[in-house]
Amino acid sequence: MEVLRQIVLSFPVVVFSALLPLVLLYWLLVLLGLAPLELFARDSLKGDHLASTMVALGFAGVPVSFALSMLLGLAGAITLAVELLVLRWLPLGLFRIPVGVAVLWVAFVLASPMAAMVCHGLQRRFHRAKHTQPRCLLGETVQVGSATGAEGWATATLIEDPECEVRLHAKPGDLLCPGERRVLVKYVAGEGAYRSVAESRYCEARVHLRRLRLAQNSRAGVSHKGAEAPL
């Protein structure tokens, strides 16, 4: 028991010792109907928030809470394995903190594609429940099946799940052509429909946003160095 206690309370395992019980408690509340499955979901991918970040990491098609739980679970398993196989046998002393931070980073890097793969395999289960969790479809690519009507309505099917059909509502002037690929970017609850953008336009916006963030980080770094220069 003492060895187990030491492992559970050791850094970086202690991070998951604190987070995973909260995850289990959340899913218990979901099963009891006391917490929503779309806890972290947003109606739109616009802006920097957890939902848009998870979609950018490849977790489109499943609720954010489920994707985050998978990511934490796999990262926790990797961290525990590193602790049992390597860290507990090394006399790290004060170096355990920086080494532990590095292990956490590597664990999430390794866990992200694995968790995304698992979520991708379970997407269709959540697609079938789109009427109860419609926001989990944001970030999915669809193919327009019918031309835009007079009021901008059209139907489309998911590329990765053709049996799943959604309703699209285009803004004035944004024509939806049959066979066109588009990405769902907003759910309008009052209409029970999605707003979408062309797949190429969505990819271009992602690249542009990434460049802006890199430029901002670069300017911040230059400003920071400039402030420290007189010292």
TrEMBL record:
Organism: Billgrantia zhangzhouensis
Transmembrane recorded as keyword: yes
Listed name of the protein: DUF1449 family protein
Entry keywords, A to Z: Membrane, Transmembrane, Transmembrane helix
Highest taxon listed in the record's lineage: Bacteria
TM stretches of this protein: 6-34, 55-82, 102-122
